[in-house]
Design brief:
Shape: elongated
Number of domains: 2
Largest sheet: none
Radius of gyration: 21 Å
Number of strands: 0
Order of helices and strands: HHHHHHHHHHH
Structural class: mainly alpha
CATH architecture of the largest domain: Orthogonal Bundle
Number of helices: 11
CATH superfamily of the largest domain: Tetracycline Repressor, domain 2
């Protein structure tokens, strides 16, 4: 089928669109190779073959394997973080908001592909700091920033007794990550089912609310 031409699209806009599509094609190929072979086992030649581009084209977009992996990490984590940390600051049912967030957070973090990415980042960050920075800025730091903004709004509205929103946000996410995710990360446990995730997060929410609820705002215990 002949593509429909947008007569209002300039040549520069068309080139930018095609360029972006090619970049996404390269990243998709790189993702498949890194997940299959690991960082050390992946090569630019194999990535080019997987992506269906020449090696020369690959280097037009990314200067090295390390740069390619860092950009892949940045885009993967940012997209996931944007989806997980969508918080409505006008929703004052803090316990329910945290429960939904925690379940989504753990569900994404416990995916085999997410854990594989974390392992690769840990293995390469000391030698290639840009990879660790990309992961941290678009993952942990992004999540803490989004959640701390929500929590600060709830404290301003007098729903929480919260001296440090950023610290409280980090504490809650650490509570969610503990236990099942850490066991998975070190290959000593399997991916938890949703009932386990909901119960685990419920305990984290209960712990958090006991620490930061206003004395006159009793919360409903969510953990079983």
């Amino acid at each position: 089928m002949t593509p429909v031409l947008d007569l209002n699209e300039t040549a520069a806009e068309a080139h930018a669109r095609e360029d972006n599509a090619k970049r996404r094609q390269v990243l998709a190929g790189a993702r498949a190779v890194f997940l299959r072979e690991g960082f050390d086992g992946a090569s630019m030649n194999e990535i080019a073959r997987e992506a269906g581009v020449s090696k020369g084209t690959l280097y037009v977009y990314f200067s090295s394997k390390e740069n390619l992996f860092a950009q892949l990490v940045r885009e993967e984590r940012l997209g996931q973080s944007e989806r997980v940390f969508m918080l409505n600051e006008d929703d004052h049912d803090v316990a329910a908001v945290l429960q939904r967030l925690g379940v989504s957070f753990v569900e994404h973090a416990s995916q085999p592909s997410s854990l594989a990415l974390v392992r690769m980042v840990i293995a390469t960050a000391a030698k290639f700091p840009e990879i660790g920075i990309a992961f941290y800025e678009t993952g942990p730091a992004f999540g803490v920033a989004r959640l701390s903004r929500y929590l600060a709004k709830q404290a301003e509205a007098d729903f929480l007794d919260l001296p440090d929103a950023e610290r409280a946000a980090a504490q809650f996410l650490d509570l969610c990550m503990g236990g099942c995710i850490k066991r998975q990360l070190f290959a000593t446990g399997s991916q938890p089912d949703m009932e386990v995730v909901r119960t685990h997060v419920g305990h984290a929410v209960d712990f958090f609310m006991r620490a930061y609820s206003k004395p006159n705002e009793p919360h409903k215990k969510l953990a079983k």
